[in-house]
Amino acid sequence: MGTTQVEAVPEPKYWHLRTVLSEALDSEFSVGEILPNERELAARFGVARATLRQALEQLELEGRLQRRRGVGTTVAPPRVGVSVGTEQHLWPGAPGDAWQPSDCTLAAPPAAVADALGTGRDEAVHTVRRSRRTHGRPVAAELLYVPASSVPDLSAIEAPSGPARARAVLRELQRRQLQRQESAVELGSAHAEDAKVLDRLPGSPVLVVTTRYVAGDRTAALSVATYRADTCRLTFGDAGGVQIHHDPPSRAC
Amino acid sequence: MGTTQVEAVPEPKYWHLRTVLSEALDSEFSVGEILPNERELAARFGVARATLRQALEQLELEGRLQRRRGVGTTVAPPRVGVSVGTEQHLWPGAPGDAWQPSDCTLAAPPAAVADALGTGRDEAVHTVRRSRRTHGRPVAAELLYVPASSVPDLSAIEAPSGPARARAVLRELQRRQLQRQESAVELGSAHAEDAKVLDRLPGSPVLVVTTRYVAGDRTAALSVATYRADTCRLTFGDAGGVQIHHDPPSRAC
DNA sequence: TAGTGGTCTAGACCACTCC
DNA sequence: GAGTGGTCTAGACCACTAG
């Protein structure tokens, strides 16, 4: 027939919409600007609100938009690079690290953590809570598990819990020789507690960084840190500068 | 009044459902097993299919489930750890690296890449496509940008494009001294091409790893690799062993 | 109190896989 | 062709923010 190739695999509407909106964001909006509300946008593009929302979700996932209930949808600033692994390995809590200890308890950790630490499943470990902010915004929440054997000289008299205790545990950690550290990054979703600290809704995507600190050939500490996936770019080996990743040219539709 | 605390902040249904399903996966299903279909599950839990799907989406994001159109929903195996950054820095294509070159072209890169490379926006660079598989499954697709100046001795006569050309570019790269490399990890969504290679739908979540290879104080190559976020755990400093991250105990509801 | 995004419903049809 | 997950609709109501 005379018709030219007709879009063999039709793009879903929400995907097309994502592309259109993405281009509009590049050319017609500036950071911080408020978009029209969802009902308005849906009407303007002639789609159901649910479909529009699917497109917005994608863009939020990619860090292009920020949505806040009761407020509106705004254009997000570029992701901030947060340094996660540096060349020289340091204990958590070393001078100059970016974390703020907020609490410390002594309790049996989740089974998976106990296994990774090589402690018994009912053995109590110090659990330090810390959080991290950048440009005044919360970017990460951490649980740091430190077996009692890693901080043998920790005074039992000092504050039994709370921030002071957390600092004491971190202080004691510095006295040991750090052999090496290993990290892993994976995608997760924020649980209620993390979500609260990160100022997001539960279920929002986070990058989970698990770090094993090795000393004396044993796992001396284990950190599980969750970073907001929408606003963060995790840098290893200090790559603060690299700033790629806006879509390469996509086919028209 | 006499009523006990009534769930001050009611959990969304889909979130509750996620928790229930997650626990069921732990206790009643084994890897690879097929779940009942969505209509069935929705009916069983007394919710609309869309709500159930929201819960499944979460679990898929967390790497617990795998859904395939026309087939069904299966219990996913644990994420595979893929080594991304090692202690000793090596050029891409060094002996033993996990990537399979598939193509190479010479063209002007996206503007953002040109800027990061410090080349002119219209200057052509070698663009090597590579892919990476683990246990027979595709896990990542990469675009590697190599400015002509980084491979000065590259013979113009050899295959002008295709896998042979890609290997030639990588081979030439090895001759230079690698100073250091810097990586960044962020969340993205798969474009059509990547989605195809990764055997996923467009828009599915990916971990984008941007690596800058520095030689002679200049960016000698730039790699943009997209990993399937559902099946991969990226390891730095070789942390193959760490395997945490199943939800900590969550509050009942 | 008005306006926003977040949740949820009950349907419909489509694209894909496998028999 | 039967059965699966993927897309889409047109509504409703809720939770939150801010004037």
From TrEMBL, chains A, B:
One GO process term, biological-process aspect: negative regulation of DNA-templated transcription
SUPFAM superfamilies: Chorismate lyase-like, Winged helix' DNA-binding domain
HTH gntR-type domain residues: 11-78
Keyword Transcription belongs to the record: yes
Keyword list, A-Z: DNA-binding, Transcription, Transcription regulation
Gene3D superfamilies named in the record: Chorismate lyase-like, Winged helix-like DNA-binding domain superfamily/Winged helix DNA-binding domain
One Gene Ontology term of the molecular function aspect: DNA binding
Domain of life of the native organism: Bacteria
UniProt name for this protein: GntR family transcriptional regulator
Organism whose genome encodes this protein: Streptomyces leeuwenhoekii
